[in-house]
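Exercise 7b. C-alpha cells:
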C-alpha cells in the first residue's frame, strides 16, 4: 500500500524538493548550477569525496526515504549539468538500513551517504528537514494507533497539514498505521455547519451533493442528536459527531444502527482515545497528527 501511494506522490515529491532546495540556495540561473550557490560548501576542495552517516537520537517510526533520495538526485543533476563538472563529481550513493514505516530505536543508523563532500553538505539540511518532520508525523500517528488496539475504530487524519506538505504528511500518517481522510476538497464531501446554513438544511445539502457527484462519499458534521437523525434520514454515508460527549456518542451509535459510519472529532487527545473507541464509533479523526508535529532529532556526521 505504501509503495502504491509513493508512486502517486512521485511528481509531488520532485516539485516539493525543488522548492525546498531553492529556499536554501536562492535564485538559480542557467549559468550556475544550484549546488554552487552554497558558499560555505565551496570552501571545500571541488573534488573532495566523503562518507557520512545519519542517525536518529530518539525512538521513531521512519518516514521520508523518497524525499531524501530526491534531494541528492536533484543536486547531482545540477552539479553535473556541464561537461566539465560531470568529470569532477560522481552521483551520490545512498545506502538505507531502514524502510518507511519501520520502528527504530534511538542511536540507530538510518542511512549512509557517499559522494562529493560539497553535495553531501549542501543537501544535508533539506534532506533532514523532510525526514525529521515526516518521521515525527508517523511516530505520533503510531502512538495514537496503539491506543486503539483491540477496537474496530480506525484513526483518521485531517486537512490540518503543514502548508505545502499535504501529500507528504498524509503518506506519513499511513506509515504510522493511520488512515487518510479525504485528501482535499475534491475527493469527498464534508458538509459542515456553514455549508448546511448556506444550503438551507442538512437534507438539501446531502441531496444536492448526491446529485452533483453520485460517486463521492458524503459526510455530514452534526452537533446534536437531532441533527444526527436529519443526516441519517438524508442518506449521509458518514456522520461526524463534533464535540459529542461519550454518553451522547453511545446514544448516537444506538440510533444509527449501522445505517451510516460514525466519526468522532474535536479535541481528540491521546488520553481519551480508548474511551471514545469503546463507544463503538468507526473512526476517530485528529488534526494533531499533522499540525502538532515534533520533529525527530537526527544527526549527520562525516566519517
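Sequence design result:
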Amino acid at each position: 500500500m505504501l509503495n502504491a501511494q509513493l508512486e502517486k506522490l512521485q511528481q509531488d515529491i520532485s516539485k516539493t524538493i525543488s522548492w525546498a532546495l531553492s529556499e536554501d540556495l536562492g535564485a538559480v540561473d542557467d549559468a550556475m548550477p544550484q549546488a554552487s550557490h552554497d558558499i560555505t560548501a565551496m570552501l571545500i576542495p571541488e573534488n573532495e569525496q566523503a562518507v557520512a552517516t545519519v542517525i536518529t537520537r530518539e525512538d521513531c517510526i521512519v518516514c521520508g526515504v523518497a524525499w531524501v533520495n530526491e534531494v541528492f538526485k536533484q543536486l547531482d543533476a545540477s552539479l553535473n549539468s556541464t561537461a566539465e563538472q560531470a568529470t569532477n563529481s560522481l552521483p551520490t550513493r545512498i545506502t538505507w538500513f531502514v524502510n518507511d514505516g519501520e520502528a527504530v530505536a534511538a542511536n540507530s543508523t538510518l542511512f549512509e551517504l557517499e559522494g562529493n563532500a560539497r553535495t553531501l553538505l549542501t543537501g544535508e539540511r533539506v534532506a533532514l528537514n523532510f525526514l525529521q518532520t515526516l518521521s515525527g508525523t508517523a511516530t505520533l500517528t503510531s502512538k495514537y494507533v496503539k491506543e486503539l488496539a483491540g477496537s474496530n475504530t480506525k484513526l483518521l487524519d485531517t486537512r490540518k497539514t503543514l502548508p505545502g506538505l499535504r501529500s507528504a504528511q498524509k503518506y506519513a500518517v499511513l506509515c504510522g498505521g493511520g488512515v487518510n481522510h479525504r485528501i482535499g476538497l475534491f475527493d469527498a464531501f464534508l458538509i459542515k455547519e456553514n455549508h448546511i446554513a448556506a444550503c438551507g438544511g442538512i437534507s438539501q445539502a446531502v441531496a444536492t451533493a448526491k446529485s452533483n457527484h453520485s460517486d463521492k462519499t458524503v459526510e455530514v458534521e452534526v452537533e446534536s442528536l437531532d441533527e444526527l437523525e436529519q443526516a441519517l434520514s438524508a442518506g449521509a454515508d458518514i456522520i461526524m459527531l463534533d464535540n459529542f460527549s461519550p454518553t451522547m456518542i453511545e446514544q448516537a451509535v444506538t440510533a444509527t444502527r449501522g445505517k451510516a459510519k460514525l466519526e468522532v472529532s474535536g479535541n481528540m487527545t491521546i488520553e481519551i482515545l480508548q474511551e471514545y473507541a469503546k463507544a463503538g464509533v468507526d473512526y476517530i479523526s485528529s488534526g494533531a497528527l499533522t499540525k502538532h508535529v515534533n520533529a525527530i532529532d537526527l544527526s549527520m556526521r562525516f566519517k
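Instructor comment: The longest strand covers residues 49-56. Residues 21 and 126 are 7 Å apart (CA to CA).
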